Amino acid sequence: MAAGTSTKRSRLEAEDVTGVLRELGATALMGQEELTLVLDGMELRRPGAEMQEYLMPVKALDGSLVNGYRSFNVLGMGRDHVRGLMYHQLFSSNEPEFESENREIQAAVEETEQALKGFGGSKTWVIDRGFDNDAVWWQIWSNPGSHLVVRVYHKERIVQWQTPTGQWEERYLEVTFKHLKKLARIETELEVRLQGQKRARKQKVKVELSAVPLRVYAPEDHSRTKSVWLVRAKIENAVGEPWYLLTDWPVVDADSALRVFIFYRRRWAVEDAFKFIKTSFGIEDVQVLGFQAVRNLVAYAWAAAGFLFHLGFTLEQPEIRLLAILGGWDERPNRPPGKQAITRGLRRLIEMAATEAMLQYEIAIHGSLPPEIKRMLAAYGHHLGR
User: Fold this and answer.
1) Are the CB atoms for 251 and 229 separated by under 8 Å?
2) Cα separations (Å) of 371 from 87, 352, 363, 377, 384?
3) I need a labelling partner for 90 at 20 to 30 A (CA). Which of 68, 250, 266, 291 fits?
4) Are the C-beta atoms of 22 and 85 separated by less than 8 Å?
5) Is the Cβ–Cβ distance between 320 and 314 less than 8 Å?
6) Which helix (H) or strand (E) holds 203?
7) What does the pLDDT read at residue 282?
8) Contact status, residue 240 vs residue 10, Cβ threshold 8 Å
9) What angle do CA 243, 247, 248 make, to 5 degrees?
10) Residue of 331, 329, 349 lying closest to 339 (CA atoms)
11) Distance of CA 144 to the CA centre of its chain
12) Pairwise CA distance, residues 35 & 25, whole Å
């Protein structure tokens, strides 16, 4: 598994784990009245790495480009903290089977909607501006009961705006901003940088919510349009521009504007899970694994997060039980493992995989391991290469 030498086997291992997560998530979410589906991307950064398989450019925290991989993930949420991971796929634009990022996004929507095919309530997809793509919007709208809240990036797109006389005329999206109507002013807590502050922090802020009704064109057929509302969330005294959110949910008063704002805020639940996976498990520190091995380990990281973040995984899943035992958990029915044991278990698995990969690299370069190292490994039942 560490070196990823068997591409087919490794891929099936990762897909098996995420497939179980998806099934458990769908089962947990089916009993809800309505769902929020957060689609977001995660960069797995490999700064300084050059020899790993299929490295691609990804954005660093400072906006520059470094080597790494990307993943798309869908987290489903209902009421009372019911959650489920509906989709995860790690990919690289340089792997042989890669088609395009748009196709990866389509797969995320397709597989999630298929898993929730029997759901009878409303589903609201929440996506960030990195997924500001008309084709994605219309793909979501093609599914029964599915709605959308997206933060727009392309403000130069052409939309339809209704004149005071009732006529619908074409305008650039950014031109319609002056027609936004103030609907609410709320106080909430956000992690944001305000004027005069050196960095962002979690704090109470006031937010002005405004909206204007519009229509958007179908990407391949401009004879078809969809009624939408543009919502602006302007954080008072904040550094940076307001959020511009597009939704097909009607926004006509303070309550409906607040509802859309709350929908978008839910994507922070995914950000918290991303941060946990990358910092708690040290996934980004492993520099020598093959691509399929990285894919497997990230899938196991999601399995651990699935247990710790209540995404449907329990001790009945062999993956969680194994990680807990690796982390030093003493199996007792009345004493479930905690965060520390699960985290330690996954770190040990990652360290084992990294060690094996480095030993295999040493064998590939020098033909064999040093005799004393070979004897020590053999004493513990390990026989690597020649």
Assistant:
1) yes
2) 46, 21, 12, 10, 12
3) 266
4) yes
5) yes
6) strand 201-218
7) 60
8) no
9) 170
10) 329
11) 23
12) 12
What angle separates helix 339-366 from helix 291-308, to the nearest 10 degrees? 170
- What the block records as the tokens of 42 is 């995660």
pLDDT reading at 56 higher than 80: yes
Lowest-pLDDT range of 32-41, 74-83, 228-237: 74-83
| Residue 340 φ/ψ, nearest 5 degrees | -65, -45
User: Can you tell me which residue has the tokens 């009732």?
Assistant: 166
Give all strands (DSSP E) within 238-385, no chain letters: 243-247
> What pLDDT, on the 0 to 100 scale, is given for residue 2?
43
Q: Which two tokens stand for residue 56?
A: 């691609």
Structure token pair of residue 297: 């380990």
Residue 188 amino acid letter = T
CA–CA gap between residue 21 and residue 18 (Å, rounded): 5
Which residues make Cβ contacts (< 8 Å) with residue 223, sequence separation at least 6? none
Residue 283: predicted pLDDT: 61
Give the whole-angstrom CA distance, residue 114 versus residue 134: 21
CB 268 within 8 A of CB 336: no
Compute the distance between CA of residue 356 and CA of residue 371 in angstroms, rounded to an integer: 17
| Alpha-carbon gap, residue 203 to 194, rounded angstroms | 10
Half-sphere exposure of 365 (CA within 13 A, CB side): 8
Closest alpha carbon to 67 in 59, 75, 78: 59
